[in-house]
Design a protein that fits this description.
Blueprint: H1 3-30, E1 46-47, E2 54-57, E3 64-66, E4 69-72, H2 79-85, H3 90-96, E5 110-113, E6 116-118, E7 126-130, E8 135-139, E9 151-157, E10 160-161, E11 170-179, H4 187-195, E12 215-219, E13 225-227, E14 238-240, E15 244-245, H5 248-257, E16 263-267, E17 271-276, E18 279-284, H6 305-316, H7 324-333, E19 339-340, H8 348-353, E20 356-358, H9 374-379
Parallel strand pairs: 1-20, 4-20, 7-16, 10-14, 13-15
Antiparallel strand pairs: 2-9, 3-6, 4-5, 7-8, 8-9, 11-12, 11-16, 12-13, 17-18, 18-19
Helix pairs in contact: 2-3
Length: 393
């Protein structure tokens, strides 16, 4: 008669203990076990940089050259240093990297290299220049019967005419070539320099002080030419009196390739779009504000009905459509970064994040040897005073 309460007490104690244990460990007993967190993806490998100035071109197939690359700046780098190392213009690199200090990017700063280029509309022969992109494309002559065969195309960054001294648009040709040109500044240029407190001599002989550099090629337009420079950091900027400037190493290479009579076509195309490899690529550049000075920043290309309709039409021709959000960013940011706007759901951040990571070194086959270049300017001096020696720079 007295055992039942004992049994009940023991059972009650056990029940109380069980409840207590459940209360203390209930979180672990009833918690839904989550899978362990995924290991973050490994950073993309860093490889040697790809060529940035010479590519294989297949007529009727190739419309986009190169590949987007990303590198890290060195402690001693400026953007001008990196631009020349990768055969890019100064403004090309500046646009692609907004917010980066051009004089002191800092050690280990991520630098976008806009080394993918949409070829502008125009003849695929001779030299094709797009002043909006500040870049030229050279299509060497091919043998008869081989017009559709793969061939080489060369592209270089250029400097063009500053505000008030615009580089002409249209077609012309190379009419003469000179090594070690003498510069005879026109009266208008001498007046401009004198007014700025920087008087010029009547003639500047070949050498490191000659703004034409070591090589010059006269165009069919009087007073305009393609030439080198004694100030390489100015390549890729609107800084000349209408002439087309190249890095010393690039003008030397181009000078040896082109013949007198080579066709030169100059276009102004801020918005470029082309289909290649299953994608519609867009590359956009700011539209310069013409006027008496360059105090106003270039305006971005607007993503208006005309631009949207153009991109949609080009995509629909290949059974595709554009990602409107990505297209608007690519066009209006005008960073000069080539973007596949027909990839649905892609963002600019994801596109940049997937770019090839490369070492901050000269690409294989580069024209430049990494030296300053002043000695290259002097090396071309021959004292040429032939036809066209008195050309504005």
């Amino acid at each position: 008669m007295h055992s039942r309460p004992v049994i009940n007490s023991v059972s009650g104690a056990r029940a109380t203990l069980a409840i207590t244990l459940l209360a203390l460990g209930g979180c672990s007993v009833f918690r839904v076990h989550q899978p362990p967190p995924k290991t973050p993806p490994a950073p993309p490998p860093v490889t040697a940089p790809l060529a940035t100035h010479q590519f294989t071109y297949v007529p009727g197939v190739t419309s986009v050259l190169g590949e987007l690359q990303v590198t890290k700046s060195r402690h001693e780098d400026t953007l001008a240093d990196i631009a020349r190392r990768f055969d890019l213009g100064y403004d090309e690199l500046l646009r692609a990297n907004p917010g980066v200090d051009p004089w002191l990017p800092g050690d280990g700063t991520t630098i976008i290299l806009p080394t993918q280029f949409v070829i502008p509309d125009g003849p695929r022969e001779g030299i094709l220049v797009n002043v909006a992109a500040m870049r030229l494309f050279y299509f060497p002559k091919v043998a008869k019967g081989a017009k559709d065969a793969p061939r080489t195309v060369v592209t270089y960054p250029i400097g063009i005419g500053k505000i008030g001294w615009a580089t002409p648009i249209g077609s012309t040709k190379i009419v003469s070539k000179r090594k070690g040109p003498v510069w005879t500044p026109p009266a208008s240029v001498r007046r401009e320099h004198a007014a700025a407190g920087d008087p010029l001599p009547a003639r500047v002989p070949p050498g490191p002080d000659n703004p034409l550099g070591a090589y010059a090629m006269n165009l069919g337009w009087p007073s305009y030419l393609m030439h080198g420079t004694n100030k390489p950091p100015g390549v890729g900027m609107r800084a000349s009196h209408g002439c087309i400037r190249l890095y010393p190493e690039d003008i030397e290479s181009l000078f040896g390739k082109v013949a007198v009579g080579t066709k030169v076509t100059v276009v102004n195309q801020p918005l470029l779009a082309a289909w290649q490899g299953g994608n519609l690529y867009v590359q956009s550049f700011p539209v310069p504000v013409e006027g008496e000075d360059d105090s106003k920043a270039p305006a971005p290309v607007p993503y208006d009905e005309k631009a949207a309709a153009l991109l949609q039409r080009l995509a629909e021709e290949h059974g595709a459509s554009i990602d409107t959000a990505l297209a608007e960013v690519a066009v209006t940011q005008s960073r000069g970064i080539t973007v596949p706007v027909s990839r649905q759901g892609l963002t600019m951040e994801a596109w940049l994040g997937a770019a090839r990571r490369v070492e901050n070194t000269l690409p294989e086959g580069s024209n430049w040897d990494g030296r300053d270049g002043a000695e290259d300017t002097a090396a071309g001096a021959t004292g040429n005073t032939g036809p066209g020696a008195g050309i504005t720079q």
